[in-house]
Fold this sequence. Notes:
Number of helices of chain A: 2
Distance between the termini of chain A: 39 Å
Oligomer: heterodimer
Number of strands of chain B: 17
Distance between the termini of chain B: 23 Å
Low-confidence stretches of chain B: none
Strand content of chain B: 15-25%
Low-confidence stretches of chain A: none
Mean pLDDT of chain A: 93
Number of strands of chain A: 0
Shape of chain A: extended
Helix content of chain B: 25-40%
Number of helices of chain B: 15
Order of helices and strands of chain A: HH
Amino acid sequence: MEDFNARAYVAAAAPMLKLDLTEEQLPGVILNIERIAALAALVLDFPLDDASEPAPVFRP
Amino acid sequence: MTESALAAEIAAGVRSGAVSAVRVIERTLERIARLDPKLNAFTKVMPERALKEAAAIDARRWQGEDPGPLAGVPYAVKNLFDIKGVVTLAGSKIDTEHRPAAADAFAVRRLHDAGAILVGALNMDEYAYGFTTENAHHGVTHNPHDLARVAGGSSGGSAAAVAGGLVPLSLGSDTNGSIRVPSSFCGIFGLKPTYGRLSRHGSTHFVASLDHVGPFARSVRDLASCYDAMQGFDPLDPVCSDRPTEPVSEGLERGAEGLRIAIADGYFAPSGTADAQEAVAIAAASLGAARNVTIPEAARARAAAFLITATEGANQHLADLQRRPDDFDPTTRDRFLAGALTPAAWLVQAQRFRRWYHSQVLALFDGVDVIIAPSTPCPAPLIGQEMMTIGGTEMAVRPNLGIFTQPLSFIGLPICAVPVHRPGRLPIGIQVIAAPWREADALRVAFALERDGVAAAPVAAVA
């Protein structure tokens, strides 16, 4: 994903999730968020029309 | 009866009185004691419960009662299924602190009612997040066909126990390929039913949107018997369908007759996967399947399944990720942590894409009944192997063993994992894929392949 700074994103988002990441954990987390971001780019690039609904359905 | 008899042979022997269930279980426990130190498939063996249940089966027969279609058949379950009085580990260290389960899982109760006898719990990747069962807490499960290789995962113990002939049946779960990948590597049959067909109640969630449970066996008939025994509506699993049960065992002998079969091309046939393509070609030739079909946007489907898995999986364990991340297995920890940070829009987009993709793939079934695809890009990697090459690209082993399975479980299609018999070679399997709720079609094709000698699951000579 272009212009995605995984290190900066992880540093900003982790406290919001109350994740106190250590220096030892950081490289693996960054590698994995980069992997997720690359796959997200594939999904986000695909045009879906506005009426398309998410798959899960809740039936009260 | 041999030490590694099939479930059908054992049940016939116990039902007729030719052998007692207690004797079957004693021999099973002896074989586990002898071979499991080499395989590390079991995390718990339960001789007391097993022998007690066996004695009860024998008593029922002596009293003239029907002891059930799976009378005296030993089986074991991935250790994410609840077993009354036993702590459900889900492959983790963290969950060893949980209380013992108050009741058996739905699937275990069903098999008990059918006369089958639970002998133990089986190893897996931590929280089902992996394809190799190289578990830092509970050890590596070894492939019975080559102890230097992985058994696959995440239901690695379930596949190794069946492939090594320790039990004729086992249960596992499949979110992205966790039944089909170990079936391929261990050379056995597995069934991932339609999403919602079997109750998951009493099993530890990994990704509720994608989780399935299902059986492993060394014959299609055994697989079908186990599946039939587990069918039934369960209101305690919100995903479980209230469709009537649809037993599949009776119709197996119709084989592939009348079914339109096609081979998945494109995404499912990249270069550098020669063993996988050979397995598909062998099966296609036997079935006379000459036509191809293209599953649209499979790469995006796999990507979307990956996003949903990372996000939901991490949410499931968020409290422990916050408080005690270093108690996770090093192979899952950083993936869970990254999953916890995945933006919500990516998850929702993946779920919207899922519905679009579902409609496209369902339309394919207007023209075909069954689709054949490889299960894994290669036979079992070596234990500890980090990298592999597919289509000229070097890639990490662990996240990529499910490239062929993920796009299909993503929309819950029923799939029979079938071991293609290649004597003297490492096992590898194919996926026999049917339309939703058409497990019978997939199993009939698997039965045809087995009858023609193309598919087989001989007991591994564990050495």
